Amino acid sequence: MERKELIQATNENAFYCCNGQVYFNLKDLLEGLRNMSDETFAYHCNKSKNDFRNWIRDVLKDKKIARDIRWSIKRTTVVKKIEINLSKYYKI
Question: What torsion, rounded to 10 degrees, do the Cα atoms 91, 55, 13, 41 define?
């Protein structure tokens, strides 16, 4: 299987996190998720919404990762699923 290039969001489509961080691709997001506070994560991902999933699906156009994290509300789970997909499907 050929690996894909990371999709780079534009400034207007970047993920603007409530803590002031800005993410432009999956690698950026993964690093941000590893370092963000539990409160910041919970603001964007909880039982009523998953902003990370929506951004991955709608902006980065990665339906597989979006599906994989659809019901995840634990940061460690989201990080692990993105790590697995990045290593399998993307040139890093």
Answer: -100
Tell me how far apart the 2 most distant CA atoms of the chain are, in Å: 38
CA 84 from centre of chain: 12
Strand ranges for the chain from DSSP E = 15-16, 22-23, 45-46, 49-50
What are the Cα distances from residue 17, in Å, to 20, 39, 69?
6, 12, 18
| pLDDT of the residue at 39 | 97
pLDDT, residue 1, reads 63
Beta bridge partner(s), residue 4: 90
Q: What is the DSSP letter of 14?
A: S
pTM: 0.92
